[in-house]
Amino acid sequence: MTIHIGAEKGDIAPTVLMPGDPYRAKWAAETFLQDARCINEVRGMFGFTGTWNGNPVTIQGSGMGMPSLSIYANELIRDCDAQTLIRIGSCGGMQDSVGIRDVILAMTASSLSTPSRGIFKELNFAPCADYGLLSAAAAAARAKGVATHVGGIYSSDVFYDERPDLNEQMMRHGILGVEMEAAELYNLAARYGRRALAVLTVSDHLITHEALPAEDRERSFGDMVEIALTAAFT
């Protein structure tokens, strides 16, 4: 049991999926896991452990933004011995070739700053995904026939961004989408020698201003969860 995760010893599986929204964690556990049980309710940040195809899996909410994710990922790794951590979440598309409902597999995650910035000081560390997870997720997405893009994303410190100049430069340099958590997850995975990946569903678009209707989100997010689970155990 940690400060923010009320699970008992042995309640956390070696493989952890991390949606930002605790209610998305609840939905994913009820939809995809067998014998799922709630193992964390501290601060309303739900976590569940069950099995998928006989493999133990924990789905733990991480909250919004890198500081919140850093708390949960640190405790999952250092106190609960999590080995594989996969972020499942939404993102905003940043290229014309990226469509609503498409899946982005984040090979790298750029950022202005992360909670790890104080460690790196003047170094611009380049956090990246685990290649084994990345390649397995790409294969799983192809097998499902899901429109998928592999490349760099941007992990932002803010949701209400007022830097159109920065967005323009990221688009110019091929950044596929923007979200708020993956860069710090990749930093922590590198620091502790764990596997990490971000599998993201495009729910809105910075260029076209399209947005995924609420009634379509569950079906679209289901593809993302299945890709993440398949990648974890390939």
Outline the fold blueprint.
Layout: E1 15-18, H1 22-32, E2 34-40, E3 47-52, E4 55-60, H2 66-78, E5 84-93, E6 103-111, H3 117-120, H4 131-144, E7 148-155, H5 164-172, E8 177-179, H6 182-192, E9 195-205, H7 214-232
Parallel strand pairs: 1-4, 1-5, 5-9, 6-7, 7-8
Antiparallel strand pairs: 2-3, 3-4, 5-8, 6-9
Helix pairs in contact: 2-6, 4-7
Task: Give a verbal description of the structure.
It is a single chain. This protein is an alpha/beta fold and 234 residues long. It has a single domain, classed as Nucleoside phosphorylase domain (Rossmann fold). The protein is 35% helix and 27% strand. The protein has a five-stranded mixed barrel. Helix 5 links the parallel strand 7 and strand 8 (177-179). The longest helix has 19 residues, at 214-232. It starts with 14 loop residues before the first strand and ends with a helix. The model has no long low-confidence stretch (mean pLDDT 95).
Could you provide a short overview of the structure?
The chain has 234 residues and is of the alpha/beta class.
What keywords describe this structure?
7 helices, alpha/beta, single chain, 9 strands, globular, 234 residues, five-stranded mixed beta barrel, Rossmann fold
